[in-house]
Design a protein that fits this description.
By secondary structure, the chain is mostly beta strands. It has two helices and 13 strands.
């Protein structure tokens, strides 16, 4: 597995070695040994799997208490995955990283604790899976609004039908960065 740098050093794009032939493909999506060598966490407490339709935007979610690191990947389809640095003490506070991850590129994205996370579905359907370093705690979950001009995420909305993504009520009610609870 190869670690590829992003514009925020703590967020790591991972590209596994894929072995394929006319029968299909095989790759290791997680190896404790490899993750140790890359300096990435090896302890995960929860696996999650979601299925969403084209145009669905999930996020930007985070837990200030019980912060989660997430190792994300796409099993079916394609998404634009985003991590937002919400650590006030960080030189990249309020900055974001966006990556296209899909079933065809097999890439994974490591998003450390202290970051908000979101993704926009670009294919007809996407199945998204991630490992989390901490348990989901809905009482501690926060949502940053997806289109906050202070963060200015360049969502590839031109790749979905319509002019706006499909949001849950929770995601519609997200707060702007100026009003959001963030990490120290």
């Amino acid at each position: 597995m190869q670690a590829l740098p992003t514009s925020i050093p703590e967020v790591v794009l991972l590209e596994p070695q894929v072995f394929g032939d006319d029968r299909g493909f095989f790759f290791e999506s997680y190896s404790e040994r490899t993750f140790q060598q890359l300096g990435l966490p090896t302890r995960y407490l929860q696996d999650n799997h979601s299925r969403s339709l084209r145009g669905v935007l999930r996020g930007i979610h985070y837990q200030v208490q019980q912060p989660q690191g997430k190792l994300v990947r796409v099993l079916v389809g394609e998404v634009y995955d985003v991590a937002v640095d919400l650590r006030r003490s960080s030189p990249t506070f309020g900055k974001w990283v966006g990556e296209f991850i899909s079933e065809s590129n097999h890439r994974l994205l490591w998003i450390p604790p202290g970051f908000g996370h979101a993704f926009l579905v670009l294919s007809d359907v996407a199945e998204f899976a991630y490992k989390a370093t901490e348990f989901y705690a809905p009482q501690h979950e926060h949502t940053l609004v997806w289109n906050d001009p202070a963060v200015a995420i360049d969502w590839p909305l031109h790749l979905i039908p319509g002019t706006a993504p499909i949001l849950s009520a929770k995601d519609q009610a997200g707060k702007p960065l100026a009003q959001a609870e963030t990490y120290a």
